[in-house]
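This entry is listed as follows:

___
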Amino acid sequence: MTATTIEQAETQANWKPAILVKGETPYSWPFQPKVALKWLKNYLFGPIALIHAGLGLFTWFFLTPSLATMQNLVWDWVALIYLRNVGLLFLVTGSAHFWLYVRKGQGSDFQFNKQGLRENDPRFWFKNQTWENMFFGIVSGCGIWTLYEVLTYWMFANGYVLFPVEWLESPIYIAFLFLLIPHIRAHHFYFTHRLTHWKPLYDAAHYLHHKNTNTGPWSGLSMHPIEHLLYLSGVFLHWVIPSHPIHACFHLLHAGISPTWGHTGFNRIQVNKLRIDTNYFHYLHHRYFECNYGNLDMPWDHLFGTFHDGSQESKKRMGARLREQRKR
């Protein structure tokens, strides 16, 4: 098999890549320098990476109060952070939803399940999948995002983090850690996500996210508050390693908007000549539940036997694994 996704129309009702393979990743073994360099180029300069990094820098420098302001917990700047986060979510997630599902800018091209999002369905709050997704993303998602962000800034402003770093002292380190954050988040996501599939946590919280068997952009951050507390907890890393507040800002912003791309319900977003590849990998997780817990370029699903490439062989292996788990 090649590492290139070959696209094909499967049926009139559904669309899928021919076979999903691991792709270009530095974790491939034996190590392939050309593959790793190509992965690195996309990691740093792909459309999604540039959107995330650009928004992270703009948000810190132009949409975040000064640390002096944030030394005291006052409602005005806390509310400003919350409204800013809601605005960022609308900018990214709302724009993707508008293009794909309201304007229908590319019709059903590259759409995995052409039945679309659920309406007049009593399983969802307000009997509407999109409205429920928006509610939990805006209220709980942006609320806990803001809670963690405000607390972290307040700690930086008052000298409570262990190893604060300054621009003039460590500019190379600050830039390096900023660029590394999406990769750190991908590892954190695998283990927290796998934890939420532990039955007590699944029944208490994660079931809410998995009501979205066919996902849309707003499904990404639609989680139970318990899951938001776990999912966004990666920012705690910056309390204990050398960090600047910009790292916390970017870490939480990335966690807030990046789920958009894995939940579009489409394999790509095509706007004129702009092409943003999403992925089939996480769609398969929502379809089958017990596979693909991480991201496509992470090694963990391969190592723990939960990788699903969309083939019948993977489906059979997953079934055998689940039957064995039930026996145990």
About this structure: Residues 37-283 form one domain. Confidence is low (pLDDT under 50) at residues 1-13. The chain has one domain: 37-283. The longest helix spans residues 129-157.
